[in-house]
Design goal:
single chain; 155 residues; alpha+beta; Arylsulfatase, C-terminal domain; 2 domains; two-stranded antiparallel ribbon; 8 strands; elongated
């Protein structure tokens, strides 16, 4: 299986661990969306798309997110799950994931390469935008000063 396209959408904000979302196309035939690029303790890593596991309300039977204290439908108190919610893995379940380490490494390298390319292209673009915006600001300041000096001469 070959990765034929990786699209990255940057989400960088100061102090946040989520750096980007990626969409990966396999063999020009299959797409996986919402792959996350996350800043770990030492390096960036790729997290596969996941969903929160649901449990059922004992009163009304509606689905409620695992770990909720009350039902959002009827307001009944939800008993704690039988298994302890000690970490993310107990309340989130991957929707798609690599079966072996070799493919996980391949996928992660492709996604992180695309992330770094996108980040570099964005950082190259920003100085140009800053330069353009400073030119526009200096032109508007120049016009304002000319207008104010013209008003002074008229008086």
């Amino acid at each position: 299986m070959e990765i034929t396209e990786v699209r990255v959408s940057l989400r960088e904000h100061e102090g946040r661990r989520l750096k980007a979302y990626a969409t990966v196309t396999f063999d020009n035939s299959f797409v996986v969306r919402n792959i996350k690029v996350i800043q770990g303790n030492s390096d960036l890593f790729v997290a596969m798309p996941a969903r929160k596991i649901k449990q059922f309300c004992p009163r009304c039977g509606k689905k409620v997110e695992m770990g909720s204290k009350y039902c959002s439908n009827c307001g009944a108190q939800i008993p704690p799950p039988k298994e302890q919610l000690q970490n993310r893995h107990s309340i989130h379940q991957d929707l798609a994931h690599p079966i072996n380490q070799q493919f996980r490494d391949y996928l992660q390298s492709k996604v992180l390469d695309a992330y770094y390319q996108k980040k570099n292209s964005e950082s190259e673009r920003q100085p140009e935008q800053t330069k353009e915006s400073s030119e526009v600001e200096s032109q508007s300041e120049k016009q304002e000063s000319e207008e104010s000096s013209g008003e002074e001469k008229a008086e």
